[in-house]
Write a structure and sequence with these properties.
By secondary structure, the protein is mainly α. Helices cover about 45% and strands about 10% of the residues. It has a 3-stranded antiparallel sheet with strand order 2-1-3, with helices on both faces. Strand 1 and strand 2 form a beta hairpin. The longest helix has 23 residues. Bound molecules: manganese (II) ion. The site of manganese (II) ion has 7 residues, from helix 1.
Length: about 200
């Protein structure tokens, strides 16, 4: 059984970057629905009590009719679980500690270049999806976007930081201006939490 985790802060804690209304709908309705549908898909299978990361890494071993439901809803569950943890109340000059910063500099040239690359990648995702910073199996950091609720775990990568660019994540606050949402979102990235998975 997968569980809907509580938010690690109040629904209005991310304002004015992300409104209470978005957080209520996003967590209580969207994420809750992914959890319910993933549990329904796993019910009665040997996968029902496996960690979601393990299920996604081995998705092709699931019964054929469970693979797409778990790709979508199991992916939706782990993506949102990581997303809530990776945010905190807004800070104007929000930057990672030296160790994380230096890893980003090594991989992307500078912290600013890293932010630009992830922002442009997420903004450029056609339709619904996520922008991701991941660690590849061989240890290198990489940035890419994935459609829908596809998780980096599907290809064996480890997600370090993801931004949800489905319209449900920003439309009530930013309407169609996805780049404006992404620009503000940097203020709520919880670099202390994200740094733990580096
Ligand atoms: Mn979402």
């Amino acid at each position: 059984m997968l569980d809907l985790p509580n938010l690690p802060y109040a629904y209005d804690a991310l304002e004015p970057v992300i409104s209470r209304k978005i957080m209520e709908l996003h967590h209580d309705k969207h994420h809750a629905a992914y959890v319910a549908k993933a549990n329904a898909a796993l019910e009665g299978t040997q996968w029902a009590n496996k960690p979601i990361e393990e299920i996604l890494k081995n998705i092709s071993e699931l019964p054929q009719d469970k693979q797409m439901p778990m790709r979508n809803n199991g992916g939706g569950h782990i993506n949102h679980t990581l997303f809530w943890k990776a945010m905190r109340p807004p800070r104007k000059n929000n930057e990672p500690a030296a160790e994380v910063r230096s890893k980003l500099e090594q991989s992307f040239g500078s912290f600013e270049k890293f932010k630009t690359q992830l922002a442009e990648t997420a903004a450029g995702q056609f339709g619904s999806g996520w922008g991701w910073l991941v660690r590849k199996a061989e240890g290198k950091l990489a940035i890419y976007s994935l459609p829908n609720q596809d998780s980096p775990y599907l290809t064996g990568d480890t997600p370090l930081l993801g931004i949800d660019v489905w319209e449900h994540a920003y439309y009530l606050d930013y309407f169609n201006d996805r780049p404006a949402y992404i620009e503000k979102w940097w203020q709520v990235v919880n670099w202390d939490e994200v740094g733990k998975s580096f």
